[in-house]
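Feature request, filed as a ticket because there's no other form

It would be nice if the structure record came with a short human-readable summary line next to the tokens. Right now we just get the raw output. Example of a typical job, pasted below so the devs can see what we mean:
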Amino acid sequence: MEIPSAPAACTDSFYRQLPCGAQFRRHLSCASAQALFEAARYHVPRCSGRGPCNPTVLIPPSVSYDADLVGSFFSELGYPLRLQNASNATRASVPLDGPHTFVYASDWWPRALSAERCGRSGHALALQALTIGSKGGLCAAARRAAASWPAFAAAAVVPRCFRWPEERHLAGMLFENKSTVWMYKDLRERTYGGLEIAFFSRRRNTTDKIVMRRGGKAGRHSSYKLQHWRGEDGRRRGLFQQMVHPPYLVEERSNCFRVFVLLTSSLPLRAWAWRNSYVMVAGLPYKNFVPDDPAVSSASVCAAIVNSFHEKRFCIPFRNRGARLFMIKLPKFLAGAAEALGVSADELWARIERAIRFVLLADYSSFAGAQGQQLLGFDLVLDADGNVHVLEANRTPGTTEDDAGRKRRMHQGWATMTGGFAGAAYPREWRGCRNGGEPACKLRARVDAYAAARRASGGAPRALERELLFEWERERALAAAADTGAGAGSGRRWTELYPGSAAAVRDAAGHLALLNGSTEIGAAVRATHALQLDYLEWLEQNDTVASQTK
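Raw output as currently delivered:
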């Protein structure tokens, strides 16, 4: 399947497909308009290193952000970046027609910039459309994917859930199994820190949570009975989610862990994982948790909810006695979990990668073709059998530093792989092939060998397709070059999450059923999927060529 390209004739209908195309109709030649079309749909380098090209780091306003710290991650890299405070962004300060690559765009975008139908939020990766970035959105995407993608339904990577009041007709799930534990997360207001998490009581038909009363004592607060909730007037708006129970325990304690995921391209999709993360472990042993009545005491709740903000507010008595939440390194955690579960560490990591891939692809139709790059933080948990469950996908992680400097290294690796986010900062030897000795020459040779093989069989990739493959190979090569010698398992570099391998692409091919194949973006996604799969299969069948060009 050939990747759809810009129409040959620059008609009025063609210009309407461009971001802000109506504005450009008078100023762009047909050739320039076609180039803009491809740059607006596919992830192709917009900066060649000739002239100024300053990617924009859009920092959304949020109480959980330290904007100066976020800026320092990027500015200390030595690249010419624009640090733009989103609250002050205007059409003039963030031009839509310049060669910008937006990072950390999050779910915020100035209304002034999207008022004139400028595509998917200008050139930014439109994460307000990426629904898995919110608790309710992740639930909705998972339910939709499970209905049309059998492998996703079988994997059950997202705990059962339903939104209130939109899906209150599904409330019968709360009573199906007496051994299940359900949580309720209030989505009406900012709930950062998990402070609005409650537990559903089947016996009382209420949601119960721990609150702090006068004198610092904890008490139970119960809602009205479920049948008295008035969803239509917006009084109750939240998410019911089945708790992962029983979980895999570390030192008899509940835990959850985060994996950082980097999207460097949305069409074709390219995603990377950073293993050198952390695991949060509850301060109280899980035996304090009472499944039949979770909110019966603060000890029960503190043994179940693994969240530092929640602990500092509701678990003070236990913290004062030394029962504090603590952190361990993710590689160490996975090694111990693999041994306890009787599987290899590689197998356990493969399960984690598959769960994240499935969740990303379940919502791929919402952000395919959006320009920009984004760092995500996936919060996951293992159950007692070693199955992986995705709890949340945070759209703005990595904004505070830890003592080990892991996040600074993440951003450095990100910038290195992408040539300063927009391609302008690639070293000369990685930009192109001049004398045959540059590493870029080997990558070009590999792509050219693939094109020659396909030409011999009756078809050959077009220039755009070859450029997409070369850019993909360059990111892979630079990620591998960043290895410190300890191997990918050390987590000290970005490892490819998607596409990764032909087997991984085939395993996740069911996500194509979620796309509208009649749309331009749907056709482009199917075509890039076919290109990536064909190229990976060719590499596997031609190990000699692949090894000679490494």
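Something like this underneath would help us a lot:
The chain has three domains: 1-41, 131-355+375-404, 415-548.
DSSP finds 19 helices and 16 strands in the chain.
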